[in-house]
Task: inverse folding
C-alpha cells in the first residue's frame, strides 16, 4: 500500500512554512520569512486596517505557495495550522480545489516549532504523520 503523503501549511502573522511527510518524519519544503521580508511583508499583529490588509496579503502569498506545491501532484492531503485570525484569512485565500483536500485544521501557531518536534502536534489529528 502506498503511504499517504501529507502537505502541511503552517502560518502565523509573520511567516509561513510548508512541510510534508517524509519517511517516518517530516521534511521542510519552504520556510518563507526571508521571501516575505523581501516582498515587503512584516509582522501583522493587531486590529488596524493596515494590519488586516497585511494579514490578508500574507495569507494570499501562503495560499499561492501551497497551490504551487500541491500542483506537483505528489501529495494526498493537506493540513493547515494557524491562529484563529490567520486561519480565517487562509480559508478565504485558498481555492475551492484546495479546500477539498484539507483533512484537518489546527488552531495553533506552529511556525516556530522545530521540525523534529512538529510531528507530535499532529498525532491524533491526522491519519498519517
Result:
Amino acid at each position: 500500500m502506498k503511504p499517504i503523503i501529507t502537505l502541511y501549511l503552517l502560518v502565523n502573522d509573520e511567516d509561513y512554512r510548508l512541510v510534508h511527510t517524509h519517511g517516518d518524519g517530516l521534511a521542510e519544503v519552504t520556510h518563507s520569512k526571508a521571501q516575505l521580508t523581501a516582498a515587503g511583508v512584516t509582522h501583522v499583529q493587531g486590529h488596524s486596517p493596515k494590519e488586516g490588509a497585511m494579514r490578508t496579503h500574507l495569507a494570499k502569498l501562503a495560499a499561492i505557495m501551497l497551490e504551487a506545491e500541491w500542483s506537483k501532484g505528489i501529495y494526498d492531503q493537506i493540513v493547515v495550522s494557524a491562529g484563529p485570525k490567520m486561519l480565517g484569512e487562509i480559508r478565504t485565500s485558498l481555492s475551492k480545489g484546495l479546500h477539498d483536500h484539507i483533512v484537518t485544521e489546527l488552531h495553533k501557531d506552529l511556525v516556530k516549532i522545530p521540525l523534529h518536534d512538529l510531528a507530535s502536534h499532529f498525532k491524533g489529528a491526522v491519519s498519517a504523520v
